[in-house]
């Protein structure tokens, strides 16, 4: 199980290990395996919505980057990514 951290603002930070070829849908599946329902939420990086087929490399996500996962009804939290090699 992944170690979760809560930020000062109360957001949940969950580190994920990803590869440059992983797609947003793969990140979503990782969260579901960690027990976080993410199917009705949208990923954002650098104030830009990410597409389901977009890869970590295409989105220019760097080691230690933080993504927003926003619920369609309310703010969802932040997830920290640690891309693999």
TrEMBL record:
It comes from the Eukaryota. PROSITE patterns: UBIQUITIN_2. Residues 14-76 form the Ubiquitin-like domain. This is Ubiquitin-like domain-containing protein. It comes from Gopherus agassizii.
């Amino acid at each position: 199980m992944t170690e979760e951290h809560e930020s000062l603002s109360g957001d949940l930070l969950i580190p994920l290990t990803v590869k440059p070829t992983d797609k947003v849908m793969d990140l979503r599946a990782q969260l579901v395996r960690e027990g976080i329902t993410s199917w009705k939420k949208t990923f954002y990086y650098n104030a830009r919505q990410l597409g389901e087929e977009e890869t970590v490399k295409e989105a220019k996500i760097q080691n230690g980057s933080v993504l927003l996962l926003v619920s369609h009804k309310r703010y969802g939290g932040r997830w920290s990514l640690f891309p693999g090699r």
